[in-house]
Amino acid sequence: MPYPDRNAYPDRFYPVVDSLAWVERLTKLGVGTIQLRAKDLNDAEALQIVTDALAITEGTQAKLVVNDYWRAAIVAGAKYLHLGQEDLADADLKAIREAGLLLGVSTHDDAELATALAAKPDYVALGPIFFTTLKSMRFEPQGIPKITEWKKRIGTIPLVAIGGIKFEHAAEIFAAGADSIAVVSDVTQNTDPDARVRQWLGLPAEAA
User: Fold this and answer.
1) Residue 1 pLDDT more than 50?
2) What count of other Cβ atoms lies within 10 Å of the Cβ of residue 115?
3) Which of 131, 183, 134, 136 shows the shortest CA–CA distance to 162?
4) DSSP of 127-192, one letter per residue?
5) What is the b/e burial string over 159-185, where b = at least 16 CB atoms within 10 angstroms of the residue's CB?
6) CB-neighbour burial class of residue 66 (10 A; exposed 0-12, middle 13-18, buried 19+)
7) What is the DSSP letter of 59?
8) What is the rounded distance in angstroms from the CA atom of residue 39 to the CA atom of residue 175?
9) Is the pLDDT of residue 2 over 60?
10) pLDDT at residue 203 above 90?
11) How far apart are CA 60 and CA 58, in angstroms?
12) Nearest in space to 32 (alpha carbons), one of 7, 56, 51
């Protein structure tokens, strides 16, 4: 697997985590794009965790993507934002763009893809590719062939594959057309997360 392109957004390896501890751990390991997805926070809590996460990644190669909390992202001075379909419907896209935020959007079917493309996103996420137990999904697994179809439809917009993906699937998923793979459990529930991250990054298992 090739090394991530540090100038690309999002990086080919794109972990999604729910805490500052994970953001710090991944930043120290040299991860280029990290999404912070912490749920059910009020406005003050959201602003605090986003501010703290940005402080962790400041001066490093890590790009912090804020999930959902677009107001906090604007106030805290974040550069990257990811929205699900419900959050996209409630978001002020004009304010998001005026703040200079790059925007990624989740999609699961044709209608959601149309909604996402109307927002002129900087990347589109497709999922779940495989079955996942991490969150309740009303959509069946998309399967790898859907990646190829989606990529043909969105053209040059980066496509992120997400949902139940492990490192062993990476080559096939990239070959199908994905530009990036978002990973959750393959890192956060791994018995040796640091070694797994290094594997995704193409580094030796015991790299410093």
Assistant:
1) no
2) 15
3) 183
4) --SS--SSS--SS----HHHHHHHHHHHTTS-EEEESS--GGGHHHHHHHT-SEEEESHHHHT-SS
5) bbbbbbbebebbeebbebbbbbbbbbe
6) buried
7) T
8) 33
9) no
10) no
11) 6
12) 7
CA distance 200 to 2: 9
- Report residue 146 as tokens: 């859907």
Give how far the C-alpha of residue 183 lies from the chain's centroid of Cα atoms, to the nearest Å. Answer: 8
Residue corresponding to tokens 């193409």 = 202
DSSP state for residue 40 in the 8-state scheme: S
Can you say whether the dihedral through the CA atoms of 197, 203, 204, 208 is positive or negative? negative
> What torsion, rounded to 10 degrees, do the Cα atoms 132, 135, 141, 142 define?
-120
Q: What are the residues whose beta carbons fall under 8 Å from the beta carbon of 202, sequence distance 6 or more? A: 1, 2, 3, 4
Q: Of 117, 145, 116, 115, which is closest to residue 130 (Cα–Cα)?
A: 145
Compute the distance between CA of residue 33 and CA of residue 16 in angstroms, rounded to an integer: 9
Residues 87-123: tens digit of each pLDDT: 999 999 999 999 999 999 999 999 999 999 999 999 9
Q: Which residue has the tokens 């040299």?
A: 30
Terminal-to-terminal C-alpha distance of the chain: 19
